[in-house]
Specification:
By secondary structure, the chain is mainly α. It is built from 9 helices and no strands. The chain starts with 13 loop residues before the first helix and ends with a helix.
């Protein structure tokens, strides 16, 4: 299929959906083997590049549905492999966001990831504030949370950061 030669255009190729179907069928036939499209893709491209590829594919009508499905499955893969919320924050390039991150839709997706991670691993819950404090000063965080709460933009998430 020569999919290993592609990088950013991988999701646009018809062979890619054929390959996904093949891997899904293989996983269904051999559930104990743990074959996963995402374990192959992340080992080949890395988390950040794979997430970026999916994010770019979501911008186009022809690949939006596939990209949306893959984003959800990638998050599930990260949960299943216990990928830390800090690593996911970095993979989603949120560590490079310049504006108020709380109004970024990707941040909302990350916050949901943290919730899902904590539901799966309640014995070792992850907090948002320590991750955010790696990239933002306390003053900036306090200001972002105050703006979000007063504006109602991300009130639920902002309140969770305060905890």
């Amino acid at each position: 299929m020569r999919l290993d030669k592609e990088k950013y255009w991988l999701l646009y190729l018809p062979q890619f959906t054929d390959w996904l179907r093949y891997v899904d069928d293989l996983s269904a036939k051999n559930p104990t083997k743990g074959t996963s499209a995402f374990s192959t893709l992340t080992s080949h491209y890395g988390d950040a590049a794979l997430y970026k590829m999916i994010e770019e594919a979501a911008k186009f009508a022809g690949t939006k549905d596939l990209a949306t499905k893959l984003q959800k499955e990638l998050m599930q893969h990260w949960i299943a492999t216990a990928k830390s919320p800090d690593d996911v924050f970095h993979a989603m390039n949120l560590d490079k966001a310049k504006q108020n991150i709380l109004s970024n839709p990707e941040f909302t997706a990350w916050a949901k990831y943290v919730d899902d991670f904590n539901a799966k691993y309640p014995e070792n819950p992850a907090l948002m504030a320590p991750v955010l404090s790696k990239y933002y000063s306390d003053g900036t965080l306090i200001e972002m949370v105050a703006v979000a709460i007063s504006g109602g933009v991300s009130k639920r998430v902002a309140t969770k950061i305060q905890d």
